Fold this sequence. Notes:
By secondary structure, the protein is mainly beta. It has 5 domains: about 40-135, Immunoglobulin-like, CATH 2.60.40; about 140-245, Immunoglobulin-like (Sandwich), CATH 2.60.40; about 250-330, Immunoglobulin-like, CATH 2.60.40; about 340-430, Immunoglobulin-like; about 435-535, Immunoglobulin-like (Sandwich), CATH 2.60.40. Helix content is about 5%, strand content about 45%. The strands form 11 sheets. Strands 1, 2, 4, 5 and 7 form a 5-stranded antiparallel sheet that branches.
Amino acid sequence: MFRKGLQLVIVSLLLLVVVNCAKRGTPTGGPKDVTPPVLVSADPPNYSTNFEGDEVRIYFDEYIKLKDLNKNLIVSPPMDPKASITPMGSASRFIDIKLVDTLLENTTYVFNFGESVTDNNEGNPFSFFKYVFSTGDYIDSLKVVGVIRDALLQEADNYVTVMLYEADSTYSDSIIYKEVPRYITNTLDSSNVFEITNVKAGRYKLAALKDADNNYTFQPAKDKIAFYDTFIEVPSDSVYVLNLFTEVLDAEVSRPKQASAQRITFPYKGNPDSVKIDLLSARPEGFKSLVTYKRGQDSLQYWFAPKIETDSLVFKTLANKKVDTTFLRLRNLKRDTLQVSAVSTSLVLEEDFMLNSTIPIVAADSSKIKIQRSDSTYITDFKTQLFPEKLQLSLKFDTEEKQSYEIVMLPDALTDFYGNKSDTLSFRATTKEYSDYGEFDITLQGAAEVQHIVQLVTEKGDVKREQIGVVGQKEFKFDRIEPGTYFARIIVDLNANGKYDTGSYLKQRQPEEVLYYPSKLDIRSGWYPKETFILNQE
């Protein structure tokens, strides 16, 4: 009995020891690994000269993965076909590079992995790891540095491709459309600063692309572009600033499509103002036509009346001095119906009440329009203005603080393009108190004697308010501003055409200069800040 009891005691003690040991041995996690992978060796070694092989293996001190390689990896000069790189999606202690393209003689090649090489456990990146070799007997060691900015917006795009083209006897400005550059780098997503390394001495054209297809060639319909005005000489101590902009495409009209019984759409690119559309087919007596355009749409609308009794129509289009003749077979479609809607039910004091229409409005009978205040009194002194090309119309009348208005359009008040009259239409609009708005005054100190445009924009660059100055104007006052966060954007309107003009690569024309007031504007109700912006323009 004593022996059994002793055995039980011994077993209990052993279990206690085991449990305590288990508790002491439970992993606590320890400090987080923040150390990136370390390069151990490479075969051939990094920065090798007289390279003749077709395969490279790079070893690290721990298991690594390649993350977002297609985004991060930049090979300079680019290879076609591209090198095969492994591992993809799995962990390994080495990277294999298999070269397929024929290498150029006496050329330094750079494989910049960006942020793609990470350790397997914590994802710590081996930032901007580069493997470099030369097919000649030396490594080019010069570099070109600079900054990418957006010509119009506050923040530049990430993953901007920066390129150097040799300015030799074969160079032309059109090279950027069809050939890959000799040297290339990328800003990635962490900075707008760029550095092109391992460049040989020489004369170059410096350009940058927000390259939508990652093909290192400029496609104006998809890509933003930036370029330095003159050729650059390497070596240089200069820091180059490149402003990305979107070109306005040359006007181009595509094949028309029938949208309704008496409306034809013409898809287009470029500036719609430069597009002309004419009907060549026989026209009935009293024929009329109208072309409309709404911002943000990619088609021009060609309206015509009366209906033409024919199976097809022939049009002549003029765009960018190019004349085309197009044939369109007609279908039996319904005609458009008129709908009118208010742009907003919140009426800003002293601004017009705007309406949108689905068919151009060509006439308005003021005698059939009634504007009533909340106290049942009527406004008799108002004006209507038609914008048929924009499918809009406006009502202008004196507005009062904290007031509501009912706008009633009696039958036949509006006449559309087809000659049809409107039914009864009713809208409501309200105003706020002056104290519900904010104001903002800005003085441009040191501004050149040119025209400036001052805009209040959102963080995304949407224009909320705008004032077009005159030559020499320095003070701009904005009132009745809806409370919110804005940024003051100043456009140096050198040609005084009242709008921002973008650049052109082929014409080697930079976009108009755009400046942002350095601090954001927190506009509040009843606040009236006055700011001075020192421009230091010549």
